[in-house]
Amino acid sequence: MKVLGIVHACCRKKKRYRRAIxxxxxxxxxxxxxxxxxxxxGIACWSLKExxRAIxxxxxxxxxxxxxxxxxxxxxxxxxxLKExxRAIxxxxxxITxxxxxxxxxxxxxxxxxxxxxxxxxxxxxxxxxxxxxxxxARTxxxxxxVLSYLKRYEEAIEDYERGLRKEPDDIYxxxxxxxxxxxxxxxxxxxxxxxxxxxxxxxxxxxxxQDTKLYGLSGxxxxxxxxxxxxxxxxxxxxxxEQIIGWARHDIAWLD
Length: 257
What we know:
The chain is an all-alpha fold. It folds into 2 domains: 18-134, Serine Threonine Protein Phosphatase 5, Tetratricopeptide repeat (Alpha Horseshoe); 152-257, Serine Threonine Protein Phosphatase 5, Tetratricopeptide repeat. The chain has 14 helices and no strands. The longest helix has 29 residues, at 2-30.
């Protein structure tokens, strides 16, 4: 029944985006030079993973307004969806040149750098976000801790995770990531309380939209303590829920061994 619930929710979202596209079609019939309509339709197409169509709409928006930083950022997201990371980065560069205070563009460029393994530049973008956010979000500390852990700067990573947890004590990403880093830096015995806390938090997740995260987190924790069959079982279930899990697993230090 859980799977059916997820499927129905996905169908509802798709219908909503299809209706949005129809609305933007009508708006463009009335005003073929509407930058916001092209951008909005592009976002709806991107949400449906129709990345090439989204790119075409963002390009039309940019033809009409070459200074529209948001359209460059959005086209970068579409390129990322196609795994064309360098083209995505080039668009984020343009967005940041036009709007140096765009947290979204820095955040998206950080993610692209992380996905191609350029962790130093990813960290640099996160540092820019730290200076731009008036009240630094827990998510920013989580992302920064993640990159620091990839660079094996474990003590600094833990400091960032702890900062994030002071803001969001129940955040499952932070709880998972600090458990993983503790295990890698100080060993399983020192990490055991963190692993148990993360496991309890993940098992308590009921949100349909977070089932892939829940299953993946449980797989990583099982891998840490060498429960390989259980780890692979959870990982297989997680992969059925969402393809983004592949990217997470590819970089996650829980699987180093």
